[in-house]
Amino acid sequence: MGVLYNQVADRLQALIKDGVYREGDRLPGVRVLSKQFGVSISTVLQAHQTLEARGYLQPRERSGYFVRLPAVDAPEPVMQRHRNRPVPVTAREMTLELCADAQKLMVPLATAIPHADYLPLRQIQQSTLWAARRGLETLDYAFPGKESFRRQIAQRMAAVGVQVTLDDVLVTNGAQEAIILGLRAVTQPGDIVAVESPSFPGILQALEVVGLRALEIPTHPSDGLSLEGLELALEQWPLKACVVVTNHSNPMGARMPDERKKQLVSMLAAAGVPLIEDDIYGDLYHTGERPRPAKAFDRADNVIYCSSFSKTISPGLRLGWMLPGRYMASARQQKYFSNLATSSIPQLAVAHFLEQGGYDRYLRSAREHYREATERMRAAVARSFPVGTAVSRPQGGFVLWVQLPEGVSGTRVYHRARAENINVAPGLMFSISDKFESCLRLNGGNPWTERIDQAIARLGALAHEELGQGG
Description:
alpha/beta, nine-stranded mixed sheet, four-stranded antiparallel sheet, 15 helices, 41% helix
């Protein structure tokens, strides 16, 4: 069905582009289009929603769908090239502000948290009830992780080209803990670690917890970490690790091509620098096949793989895992000393959900939801924001990186938006050296509503006002 309604949407879009339906025209009714294309009415309605997300249709209550040509597509942000030095990481207060209880009352465009409507709530509730009835199996310390859960992880890793056994898997409290354990396994306080720029704030926070210095490496919005920048850093600085989100990075949504992943793995192995790979968005690709992780190209056992189900099944489960490889002994020790084990019931519940095949069925619809949601938000930003605004084109995940025109302060837009109960993430959060003052990150992982539509329009108006005031 997903393929069919996309085909109908593509055919209608072609008719609009060819001028058969002009801007302002009302499309024929759903029953007419159902007969015209030989599909069900529900398929036509899904095609309409897809075209609305792409910016080609506008619904009018009790009147139908009308053609609206999308705004001129916004370009991608440019990769910012800077000569950087290692810097100690300190937390930004605004990072904590975005997670405060007060933000739950705001329009949720800041935190990269999936909306409850896009999560498999009913299925995971059923699996949790099943797990809770397992008796003594739920009461022990599940260290290094429940066998059933680690078996499912090993099977899923094999499907993306990574051959591991159950004993290679260490279960963690989310990917954040996995990254921290990986860092502690390969570094000492004061060491230098290479990170993407812009970088996910959680990674910067992990470096701060371990007492490390960050060296920011320029990152392309489509291809990911600059290998040329990393090569220069390896020549100039005694790097002890490199942390990269290889698939659908946060905040840019970049997916590193396989060839560059191979080069990244080879370059770091030759330098003796461990790669800590965060693949938390790997399952949320929008089209095509599941991208392989860099770990699939690891022949030197130099990649520490980290992931979780926080972006797919539920952030509240806090259920992640890592493949520490030759650093397993140190990672296990750090895990045991810090919190003994990860809770048993979530592991049993998710293992049951995976065994029943529910996860893959859910992912098929979730990917389509996120693709449409980010396309719709991207089109709305292009319509509402000033000329010169650039917006990322993520191939997966659900966040958008917005680069405002020169002279427009993303931080000022952030503060003014919060005063109007619109929560966005300012660019300063994604760097330790104030590089992205003119940027914002938006969460596209929400069902489209009039409230969100109005919030994007208001953000655009604020950006226009800031531009008119000269920043």
